[in-house]
Amino acid sequence: MNHELLTTYLNDHHAGAVAATDVIDRLIDENQGEPLGDFAITLLSEIEQDKAELEELIKQYDAMPGVVKQAVAWAGAKMTVPKFGRATAGDFGNFQALEFLSLGILGKRALWRMLQTLSDPELLSLDYGRLIARADSQFQQVEQWRIRTGTMAMNRRAAV
Predict the structure, then answer these.
(1) Most CB atoms closer than 10 Å: which of 81, 84, 112, 143?
(2) Which residues lie closer than 8 Å to 97 by C-beta, 6 or more apart?
(3) Residues of the chain with pLDDT under 70
(4) Are the C-beta atoms of 26 and 85 separated by less than 8 Å?
(5) Is 160 exposed, middle or buried, given 0-12, 13-18 or 19+ CB atoms closer than 10 A?
(6) pTM
(7) Is the Cβ–Cβ distance between 11 and 73 less than 8 Å?
(8) CA 135, CA 116: separation in Å to the nearest integer?
């Protein structure tokens, strides 16, 4: 197994998870007391669980990135977040945030499926069937919200 490539792969997905939690935090803050905000709270809990499992795998596999790579990943995640959210673009901003999350969840599902195929015993310590099923459930729920908010945003007439 190529440890360097696996380290890059795991840490790229970790950077995506960091960006996802930032986007979800923003959805929560900007939609407090509303159904989307409530949904985002539940989603954040699951995404944080998945992120923790990935972090444990990174530690277990000794795949921690260097300090420079961690800083670049953090900065990249922070630069993505401001574009998304209700404060930036109303319902369309929520739609963009949900679309970002939807695509990220598909990427996470692909990660779990890939790791499931590798023969390294340390990688086989996770219950990939459970993680894949959770990603599928997350995707379906986020998709429902994405379509709902996208429809609301795009059916609104622009102010004259």
Answers:
(1) 84
(2) 23, 26, 27, 84, 85
(3) 65-89, 157-160
(4) yes
(5) exposed
(6) 0.86
(7) yes
(8) 14
